[in-house]
Amino acid sequence: MLRFPHQVLHAFIASFSFVGMLAERSETAVYEKYLEWRWKSLANDLPEIGKPPSGKEAVALMRVVVAAQEETFQRGFFHAFNDELAPRDKQVLAIEMGMSGCKDVGFRSQVDDPLADPTMGPAFLIYYGPQFMRSAGRNKEFAGALQMLAEIYRQARSLWPLSKEHAGTCVTVRIEQMKDHTPTQIQDGHRWGDGWFLLRRNQRESAVEQRPIYMINSTLENDETDVRLLCLWNRHPEDEAEDAEFLEELELIRQTQNDEKELGMAVESIP
Q1: Which 3 state secondary structure label does DSSP give 103?
Q2: Residue 85 domain boundaries
Q3: Which of 52, 57, 241, 243 is nearest to 146 (CA)?
Q4: Is residue 195 within 8 Å of 212, Cβ to Cβ?
Q5: Secondary element (H or E) of residue 149
Q6: By CB count within 10 A, which of 19, 68, 86, 241 is most buried?
Q7: SS3 of 181, please?
């Protein structure tokens, strides 16, 4: 605890009073109350953030700003989220970070958003997400970090589609290998053939790993793992459609390989 930044340690201790609220309120109500309290406290030093936000993006925005922890980073992520993110990335963050992970109990600001339906799941926890944000913040790459987090959420959802069966569950997405890299370092790696993949480990856990892109064929052929190539290279608006086509082609290859394997197994089982 002595190694904690004083500001973080103070916020941690001050949050203890919210635990007692769980006796009378739902987990989501307590967490939303906590986020609003932190936001009001931050507004004393960052007046430009104003009052706690409302609407479908409110929970995601508050989570992003609070997770940044340091004032300089919080200001940068606040402006990046509101002013620099592409609409498709902002929508992904608003939906995925607005999911409570509690069955049938959602956040107040998300009640009218069918895509954040608390009767559906799973929700995602990006483990080491805040540390990755701070690594990006030291290099002032706020928007780049949020774009990459949105892509991780997007591909995680393709591995775990929304379903009523998984309501109230949470999947951990581990990003240890990314946490100390800046977005520029990650993007530069693609020039030398380095790719980043999201690999499904089991029903409740996945991990982002760096691998040579040339290994994609052997990765897709792995019977034991579901995998997605993350689009973390430097994107331009005009390249969005081309990127989408490329990723769709990879998904088609993966599905074709799975179908061929299932057909082969079915043929072998015929007496």
Answers
A1: coil
A2: 6-235
A3: 57
A4: yes
A5: helix 142-159
A6: 68
A7: coil
For the chain, how far is it from start to end, CA to CA, in angstroms? 65
- Tens-place pLDDT, residues 142-153: 999 999 999 999
Contacts of 28 (CB under 8 A, 6+ apart): 100, 102, 105, 106, 107, 108
Q: SS3 of 47, please?
A: helix
Q: Has residue 115 been placed in a domain?
A: yes
Residue 227's nearest CA partner among 201, 203, 248 is 201
- Tens of pLDDT, residue by residue over 46-102, are 999 999 998 889 999 999 999 998 899 999 999 999 999 999 999 999 999 999 888
Q: How many CB atoms sit inside 10 A of residue 179's CB? A: 17
How many domains is the chain partitioned into structurally? 1
Q: Cα torsion for 259, 264, 265, 271, to the nearest 10°? A: 140
- 32: amino acid identity, one letter: E
- 């990459």: which residue's tokens? 148
Q: Which uninterrupted H or E stretch holds 138?
A: helix 129-138
